[in-house]
Amino acid sequence: MTTIYLVRHAEAEGNLYRIAHGHYNSCITDDRGCRQIRALAERFRDVPVDAVYASDLIRTRTTAQSIYLPKGLELHPDPAFREICMGEWEEHCWYELLRKYPQSHHDFNHRLDRWQVPGSETARQVLDRYLPALRRVARQHDGQTVAIFSHGAAMRIVLGTLQGLSLLEIGDTPFGDNTSVARLEVEGDDIRVLYRDDNSHLVQAGLSTLAKQKWWRQKGVQEMGQLYAPLTEEERQQLGVPTGGEGVAVRFVDELIGAYQLLPRPEEGVGEIGWYGLLPQWQGRDQGIQPLGQIIQRCRHMGLLRLRLRCGDARQRSFWAKLGFYPVEGDVMEKNITPRVLDAHIPL
């Protein structure tokens, strides 16, 4: 018999910024994501593990540090354990997808038997690559314990199937938190789910991503959210955004709530945030973080792998520091947005 711990990756950019990331190679978040990895390492500190696998995407390979580094094991990347490919949905914010494609958005969450968009995988295609890989790993490590790091939607599909549910019935199953753990027992071709979606190590440490968000609690998973569009001259003047660069309006549903200004500096490989703010009545309402995800994606597409801003206010510098910005000189802060495996600072 082989024991397999199936573990979802820690909080990544798509989770924090509410963007659809399937095969998009996003990073783990600098603050809560890395702390979740350390909490996971503590959970598995005294659990014997003989081998560690992960999808070949950055967010799982980063999370896998929690087990393979302290135990001195090799990491085996395997694309069979990737997230479902979201095709033309990749890199679009979830609320935009809800607005444009309400039926497909509903199907993704509740009718996986019929969900498919141009360029995407189907749930059945995920199963066709994932389940044979699970059994292959179990055969290669018969009598041992293995940890496999994977992704939320793929795990929901796979775990539900292993519990005997149809793809239609899987639409009624819960969403797993970041770093949630499932335990499987494999005997021959038989795979049993002993438990799933266990995030107790996060709850104890106050690090649950889902506890900080509301989308999964909404009826039909129809969250309200942000939309982005080029800033009009009238909006620029209303908000006090300087001229130049790329100005983007931030709306909550249809209401203008703020904006940002991006000043590309290609000669330096830097995207400078010239202006970033919300209207006073929208400050302190958990709307200030998501626009950064749009900036990061835009800069990566332009080949700009650092962000820069000026911030002299101590409270605001703390806000930016939690998002991965570090002091450079004077009031200048920068953030490395190169897609990479972050050092989660796991105690060894």
UniProtKB/TrEMBL annotation:
Site annotation Transition state stabilizer: residues: 151
Domain N-acetyltransferase: 189-348
Stored InterPro entries: Acyl_CoA_acyltransferase, GNAT_dom, His_Pase_superF_clade-1, His_PPase_superfam, PGM_Phosphatase
GO molecular function, one term: phosphatase activity
Protein name as annotated: N-acetyltransferase domain-containing protein
Biological source species: Vescimonas coprocola
Taxonomy of the source species: Bacteria, Bacillati, Bacillota, Clostridia, Eubacteriales
